[in-house]
Amino acid sequence: MKAILLFLVLAVFLFGSLVSHSAFAQFSSAGGVDKEGSWYAGEGLKQGDFFSYSMCHVDYKECANFEMDMWIKGDKQVGSETKWLAEVVVYDGSKIVVGEMELGKIAPEPTGGSIELGVYRGAFKSSISWLSAFATSDDSSGGKGPKEFKAASWGKIGNIGGEQVIPRAIETVTVPAGTWETVQVGWKTGGVTSKVWIVDGFPFPIKAKTYTHVSEGIPPTEYEFKLLDYKEHVQESPFKGIISTSDEFAAAGCETDFEKSVSIKKPTHNFDYQVHIFYGPEDPIVGCEMEWLISFISKYDDTEFLNQVQFDFLTVDEKLTPLRSIAQEEGRQFLYSPSGQHIVDMIVKERPGTAHYVIWIYGLAPEGIAPSGAADYLEIEVPIYGPDGVSPAQEIPSWIKNNAGWWADGAIDDNSFVQGIQFLIKEGIMKIPPTTQGSGGTTNDIPSWVKNNAGWWADGSIGDSDFILGIQFLIKEGIMKVPQNTQTKSPSGYQPQSLFD
Q1: All domains in the chain, ordered by first residue
Q2: Averaged pLDDT score across all residues of the chain
Q3: pTM for the complete prediction?
């Protein structure tokens, strides 16, 4: 009898445990939290609100982090629709982007604004305001309407599997902007749970960590953000005096509208990988912007991109000692490319001369896991020019100095010397922008002081840059003429023309 009773007790205990566990799993799957009220994207948004977010999105440099600050300036009438007008500043590594963004009233999604903010608007729409796809202020005109915290589901995601977006838990969360009581909204994808934390009455989520849907392997981050700062009733623009980096570049004479026109495709040092690189501008200048597109390719198949590449972009000396790390400048241990393609934006800090850039590949492994293989690298040499267009990247040939000395002594004529100068320009040793060409006067005579400079340069009394600046002066004044076709790469068999009219 005791044995039967003991069996019944154990059966009830086990059965009860199974029922409780099943009920809990069913509740988690269905969703909903024990909290009154509802929420929608943009709830409580008003003029004078200031937000600062640290964020990333997989579609922008594969989730490279940047900061977006936004101030709600007021209303803007666009046709028959009234929108929010926001001033925005983005801090993206060493780059600052200033502009405006328009946000809808029913759903606070960006619908227009400054062209320069295009990629950042896209990242904002697909992350911070993403829940507006499920919860909006109004259910008319295609809106979804506010969503209850107790609701079993807020809707389905449109990818394969159609995961339910559900309120999952009530959590106290701390971010740089403070500590908040939040509702965690989440969905399962690829075996992991994506999470977004919202606050009742607050316009945007304060934190998120989400993953890309994959059918196999470890899901990479889709987007991630956290609220750095929030202020109300800000009456004046908090961005006064902040200037876009592109405007500073333009004011400094930097090229701002350039293509990544230089192409390099090589195997790495140990032949473990292939790397295909495009960079621009073709003639990078100290203090100006430079952009690289780096593709990591299988050594066996030119069409196969490598996945989960851990690497860094370095400046090194002749002994491969690192002098600069782009990963460190971005606050990261290494750069990471899930897809095998990566864009590097940088400001040229290297001195005029030949810069030794290195793509250092640690190996292939999921982010956060150390690669097991040996590292490999590819070195790229790039001539860097000074702001005045002068580059000591290539040593000026000794015969040019000999010519300068002979010319100063009267042993050779002006035309022979000019041919040497034209060689410098044609080979890119001395950069002369076409826009600096002067119209000239009535004489083609070279002033005697230029010959004196040539003599001092030949005997080492003045440096290369001083001599070249003198020649540039002659060209700017129109005393020496530079044909336009000497400013670009010339075909083989090209014969130098006279610099004189």
Answers
A1: 38-231 (2.40.360), 253-384 (2.60.40.1930), 398-486 (no CATH)
A2: 83
A3: 0.69
